[in-house]
Specification:
49% helix; binds dihydroflavine-adenine dinucleotide; alpha/beta; 303 residues; 8-stranded parallel barrel; 13 helices; TIM Barrel
């Protein structure tokens, strides 16, 4: 949990990213700080039939003008005729578009991006941030979904409220990316033991999978836990859900070979590629997910 505390600490946020070894270590999860690096990393994956999601790192802005700049960046990205066979999908954090400061301005940015994404034949996804943002993010999603078919949302299985949230969204024929959850949430509102989180994930995934089978949802399993994916797939199979309805979304740099294996086994595969200069809190959450990553980062100190 110390890593998640470090992710939020303002002094560390400012100073740690300047250290050379931290910058070197982050390249394991991030091909570079600009969109060109992201397109470069995507090319080979897309050529092998994977879907691509891009996210420019950033969250919790200080002034609303920064949201205008972020939205302009994403608009240019949607306009960009890249070399990829399919347009990349976008995944954005609502606080990166000003949710903290002005929820209406945030909605207008998202609405504009969803319209552009639709015109370009691709999708816009909302990431899910800390628990204090869940209600506002669900509200944003409901409004967006009323106007756009091509919008998705992330739900976190560790939150005890998520089954209710999923049932609330299902009548909208939603696109849902189910993840375990990456923030430090208290036991009053979140499962903290791995077995509990996995059980919650499996139960939610099966509800979503059945909706996908009936054409009432797009189901994305946002996890690197291939054992869990296989268990879900076998239960889903018994309920008549084909693997082709169960997308698997993984983060760039994590279990890439496993994603290729799952793709060959019939799951539509997507890699989410993050890039940008504001990577520190995002990177600390990746370290927190797997203590071995800290050793990997420390090894970068050695020549
Ligand atoms: P778990 O932690 O059980 O890991 C399973 C296996 O995967 C591990 O044994 C290890 O081999 C490997 N692994 C997992 N994480 C690793 C890492 N960091 N480094 C190296 N190996 C690792 N969360 C959130 O709260 N809001 C969001 O919007 C998103 N969005 C999102 C999108 C996508 C596409 C993914 C894959 C994940 C997210 N997450 C997220 C993060 C998610 O909540 C969760 O923290 C991570 O995916 C890690 O959990 P796993 O499901 O991979 O399982």
């Amino acid at each position: 949990m110390i890593l998640l505390w470090m992710a939020r600490n303002p002094w560390l946020r400012e100073h740690l990213p300047r250290l050379g070894f931290v910058r070197r270590a982050v390249h394991r999860f991030m091909p570079g700080e600009d969109a060109d690096s992201a397109f470069g990393a995507a090319a080979g994956l897309a050529a092998n039939g994977q879907g691509i999601l891009f996210t420019r790192l950033g969250e919790n802005l200080a002034v609303l003008a920064e949201a205008d700049e972020v939205a302009a960046h994403y608009r240019a990205l949607l306009d960009r005729e890249g070399s990829l066979p399919r347009r990349p999908e976008l995944s954005v954090k609502p606080t990166q578009l000003g949710l903290d400061i002005d929820a209406e301005a945030c909605f207008r940015h998202l609405d504009g991006l969803a319209g552009l994404a639709g015109g370009a034949g691709t999708w816009l996804w909302l990431d899910m941030e800390g628990s204090t943002y869940v209600d506002a993010t669900l509200d944003l999603y409901e409004r967006l979904r009323a106007a756009h078919p091509n919008v998705g949302i992330c739900l976190q299985a560790y939150l005890k409220r998520t089954p209710r949230d999923l049932w609330r969204l299902l009548p909208l024929a939603p696109a849902v990316r189910l993840v375990k959850g990456a923030y430090d949430e208290p036991a009053t509102i979140a499962y903290r033991r791995r077995a509990e989180v996995d059980a919650a994930y499996q139960a939610l995934a099966l509800v979503l999978a059945e909706a996908a089978r009936d054409g009432r949802a797009r189901c994305a399993l946002g996890t690197h836990d291939s054992g869990l994916i296989e268990r879900i797939a076998s239960f889903a199979d018994a309920a008549g859900v084909s693997r082709g309805s169960l997308e698997v979304h993984m983060l760039y740099g994590i279990r890439a070979r496993e994603l290729v294996r799952l793709q060959a086994a019939g799951f539509p595969a997507f890699t989410l590629i993050a890039y940008g200069s504001f990577w520190y809190p995002w990177y600390m959450r990746r370290l927190a997910e797997r203590p071995a990553n800290v050793l990997f980062a420390l090894r970068q100190i050695l020549p």
